Structures are given as C-alpha cells and as structure tokens.
Amino acid sequence: MLIKIVLFALVLYMVVNLFLAMRVMIKNDHKKGPMSKYIGRRVLTSAIIVIVILLAISTGLITPNPRPY
C-alpha cells in the first residue's frame, strides 16, 4: 500500500510540474524560472517512477496482471 501512495505522490508531482511549465509558457513569466526547469523535473520524476515500479516488481511488492495467454 505504501508503494502505491509513493507512486501516486510522484505522479501528482509530475502533473504539477507540467502545469507550472504551462503557466510559464503561456504567461511568458521568467520570474518563476525557465520552463526547462519544470520540464526537466517532470522527466526526472517519470524516470524515478519507472525505476520504482521496476524495483517493486522485482522485489515482489507489487505484482503485474497475469499474461492473457
């Protein structure tokens, strides 16, 4: 259950950074920082999510659905 909460928090953080980058792009507001900072955080977060999922599957914390064939 804890791993699902961590994954949900990481996905939420990724979505927040996506909207922050969109706001910087639309308003052209460079005081908040460059848009690439938020996009970079989003890419890093998605890489961390993939690594956490792979580690959780390999250790048995989560189990994938059975194969259909």
From TrEMBL:
<protein>
    <submittedName>
        <fullName>DUF2909 domain-containing protein</fullName>
    </submittedName>
</protein>
<keyword id="KW-0812">Transmembrane</keyword>
<dbReference type="InterPro" id="IPR021313">
    <property type="entry name" value="DUF2909"/>
</dbReference>
<feature type="transmembrane region" description="Helical">
    <location>
        <begin position="43"/>
        <end position="63"/>
    </location>
</feature>
<dbReference type="Pfam" id="PF11137">
    <property type="entry name" value="DUF2909"/>
</dbReference>
<feature type="transmembrane region" description="Helical">
    <location>
        <begin position="6"/>
        <end position="22"/>
    </location>
</feature>
<keyword id="KW-0472">Membrane</keyword>
<keyword id="KW-1133">Transmembrane helix</keyword>
